[in-house]
Specification:
Blueprint lengths: L5 E9 L2 E7 L6 E5 L13 H9 L3 E5 L11 H15 L9 E6 L1 H13 L3 E4 L5 H8 L27 H11 L7 H4 L12 E6 L7 H12 L4 E6 L9 H16 L1
Parallel strand pairs: 3-4, 3-5, 5-6, 6-7, 7-8
Antiparallel strand pairs: 1-2, 2-4
GO molecular function, one term: hydrolase activity
Organism: Mucilaginibacter angelicae
Pfam families: BD-FAE
Length: about 260
């Protein structure tokens, strides 16, 4: 029988930032579901589909809004996600505080990885933007910073950035995150924060997609060097993040079940 879901919207967790909470019965753990959008667009409604699925699987799920660029430059979004984690831990909701994970797509995958590195919680990252410094260095002189002229408010998440590499647009997203200050690139790159206390990670990426797959592989190597288990799933083709949800969600859920059980 399908787990009936209750959704509580617009809970304030920090200043004027709000989150939505998806709950069923007898939560077996909790997940912070972090929406994507290149750090510059999107909100918590963007992940209503994934949050509903995760709640049906038995998880208490929160989907927080976080500050976006150009005002919310690094590390604003990261600070907000960590604040949502603190709110969740301190809340009155009933679940095992030792069973909390972060799950994000694209820029949300980047923020999920940051939470796992800094707080040691398990992570599922679909097309997380990981090697910011390396990507900018490798594409210097090969692409300028150009924003894609699309109305992202009317395009479903699973249809965005599905056509493969777009280095100019990804460079634009990263430059917006660091406010155009290249001196912040190294600090904004999660690879610099891997340690033996990092959380276990499930990293999915398409082979020829918008976000280069080598970021996930570099993170896996860094985690291996630190003695932290991880899994990388490489999906054929150019699909990005939630575009390959049907191919990644079963293995992602199994990853969490194996850690929490």
């Amino acid at each position: 029988m399908e787990n009936p879901i209750r959704v509580t919207r617009d809970i304030t967790y920090k200043n004027d930032l709000k989150l939505d909470l998806y709950s069923g019965k007898n939560a077996k753990g909790a997940i912070i579901d972090i929406h994507g959008g290149g750090w510059f667009h999107g909100d918590k409604m963007k992940d209503e589909d994934l949050a509903t699925r995760l709640a049906q699987e038995g998880y208490l799920v929160i989907v927080p809004n976080y500050r976006l660029t150009p005002l919310g430059t690094f590390p604003a979004g990261r600070e907000d996600i960590l604040a949502s984690l603190d709110w969740l831990i301190q809340s009155a909701y009933v679940f095992d505080r030792n069973k909390i994970a972060a799950w994000g797509s694209s820029a949300g995958g980047n923020l999920a990885v940051e939470a796992g590195l800094l707080r040691g919680i398990p992570v599922i990252s679909w097309s997380g933007i990981i090697d910011l410094e390396g990507f900018i260095s490798e594409t210097d002189g090969k692409a300028s910073e150009t924003k894609t002229e699309l109305d992202f408010t009317v395009i479903p998440s699973a249809d965005i950035n599905q056509g493969g590499r777009n280095d100019a647009f990804l460079r634009w997203c990263i430059y917006a995150l660091i406010g155009g200050d290249r001196s912040l690139l190294k600090e904004a790159t999660p690879l610099t924060r891997v340690s033996s206390s990092s959380g276990q990670m499930y990293l999915a990426n398409s082979v020829n997609e918008f976000v280069p797959a080598d970021g996930a592989l570099k993170l896996q190597q860094a985690l291996l060097n630190a003695g932290v288990p991880s899994t990388v799933q490489l999906v054929p083709g150019t699909v990005h993040a939630k575009g390959y949800m049907s191919q990644a969600i079963a293995a992602s859920l199994s990853f969490l079940d194996n850690i929490f059980n």
